[in-house]
Specification:
Largest sheet: 7 strands, mixed
Order of helices and strands: HHHEHEHEEHEHHHEE
Strand content: 15-25%
Strand order of the largest sheet: 3-2-1-4-5-7-6
Helix content: 40-55%
């Protein structure tokens, strides 16, 4: 099985997710103690998808995160560069109206300028090789006034909670990963989480990419965070 490194070469990252596609959603629930489901509900509430809108869900994987947007009446595109994840998603989400799957690279999105009313990425931004470029691509395909929502792992501001979180990532997560068909992929996920910038640093990256009105709020004491912004056009 492929194990990606922190230089995040696209082919290696895609192959790693291909290898864990079938059990990816289950393992996410296990390694977060079920919090991933609550976080995704917060994403749905924060994005406020509306009937008739076009929404891009980037790094959508199997489409679990995309289904609620389509259910709200939005034309939803689930985009990912792991063909293995997309194949699983197409099978699992068959029959969901208003949802289609598209293979695409976050650094070269296969969409025209100003194509979407809202763009979102959950737990995928830290897996791209160039965070700033991905944020600029998301802005390119968003309409003027279009909304950005990033849900990503983060760092608890409380020192004691931060210590517990790091301990879980370094020791607890590798134990859970043993039930995966690709344990090395979860070691990568732990390493990428530890290396990811904190809430304020990510907000600066979003602003530097040209987004306006950047703000964030913590989820589960800062283990994850929601960042929101608007495309000034």
């Amino acid at each position: 099985m492929t194990r990606a490194s922190l230089d995040k070469q696209p082919a290696a990252v895609a192959a790693m997710f291909d290898g864990t596609a079938e059990r990816y959603d289950l393992l996410n629930t296990l390694m977060t103690g079920g919090q991933d489901r609550r976080w995704r509900r917060e994403v749905v509430r924060a994005l406020e998808a509306r009937p008739g809108e076009r929404i891009l869900d980037l790094a959508a994987g199997t489409g679990t995160s995309s289904v609620p947007f389509a259910a709200a009446g939005a034309e939803t595109v689930a985009c990912d560069f792991s063909l293995g994840m997309l194949r699983v998603g197409v099978r699992r989400q068959a029959g969901v109206r208003g949802l289609r799957f598209v293979a695409g690279d976050a650094l070269r999105l296969p969409f025209a300028d100003a194509s979407f009313d809202a763009v979102t990425i959950s737990f995928g931004l830290r897996n791209v090789a160039d965070t700033g470029r991905a944020l600029r691509e998301l802005r390119r395909v968003a309409k003027p006034g279009g909304r950005l929502l990033v849900c990503e792992v983060s760092h608890p501001p409380n020192a004691l909670l931060a210590l517990g979180h790091r301990t879980h990532l370094r020791f607890g997560l590798p134990l859970l990963a043993r039930v995966s068909s690709n344990p090395d992929s979860y070691r990568y996920l732990a390493e990428s989480t530890l290396a990811w910038p904190d809430q304020a640093a990510l907000a600066r990256l979003i602003q530097d990419a040209g987004w306006d009105g950047v703000r964030w709020r913590d989820l589960t004491f800062g283990v994850a965070a929601l960042h929101r912004a608007v495309n000034p056009g």
